Amino acid sequence: MSVLINRQKYSAAFVASSYFCISASILTVTLFSGNILGYTSELWALKYWGPALYLCLLNFTLRYSLKGFPYEVALRSAFLGSVLAFGLYLTSLTAAWRAFGLYIIALSMFHFSEFFAVALTNPRTLTIDSFILNHSIQYWLAAVASWIEMSVECYFFPGLKSAQWLTTLGVAMCISGEVWRKMAMFTAKTNFNHHVQTVKKADHQLVTSGVYAFCRHPSYMGWFYWSLGTQMILINPICLMIYTIVSWSFFQERIYAEEMFLVSFFGNQYLEYQKQVGTGIPFIKGYVPDDSW
Fold this sequence. Notes:
Keywords: Endoplasmic reticulum, Membrane, Methyltransferase, S-adenosyl-L-methionine, Transferase, Transmembrane, Transmembrane helix
Shape: globular
Order of helices and strands: HHHHHHHHHH
Number of strands: 0
Strand content: under 5%
Oligomer: single chain
Radius of gyration: 21 Å
Subcellular location: Endoplasmic reticulum membrane; Membrane
Helix content: over 70%
Largest sheet: none
Structural class: mainly alpha
Function: Catalyzes the post-translational methylation of isoprenylated C-terminal cysteine residues.
Main location: endoplasmic reticulum
Organism: Pieris brassicae (White butterfly)
């Protein structure tokens, strides 16, 4: 059984990384062809029609070469690789487009790395949902809201987007948030799950080492600061404020609910851990048995 799981793990990880890298590489070359070789009518066609032709041929090839789960993995990975390449191209344009390019690179890497990390650390829970592309309607509404704010502010208040140091700070927040979250996943391994567990499994262990020695919920902390970093990249003051409030409220409720089950799973062992290590997100203390929340 373990051999089969390992094969599935490396197979899914290989398919995902292969098509992600192939798409990112091919589209990066086509999009930057004019910058490197100069602008001619032939290169103009390569630059603007090449990506569209490639995506059509890719989808056609995948439909006849892969079936079922591998096809779904390859399709999403190729799409995220294409988004990464498009983001790289945008970073070569004006300051505002550069910020948006960095933003969609952060989105692409986050969703791809989520699937890739689960494939390597906890393949038994691996599904198409591990990409978190269908996280929730609210998630994508929030993303669209940030795009609208950036567009409106770029048009009416272009000077607001000139503070490039804020974009740089946002990139640093996204990178550090990603690192913390992925370190949490690779530390917890099979004990990590995208869904709050309500039933203790036989092999479920309390992880207190590695990044968990510094905060009880490093994956949530990483996601929290990553989400704020995306708005720092775009220099979106309104969405930054809203993201902070909404994300904090979301993780407060989720951590409280999750720790109710963790206390029931591990009893005093978890209560002692709570006393020694914070949640990682400011002003969120989590669940305490005598807490009347």
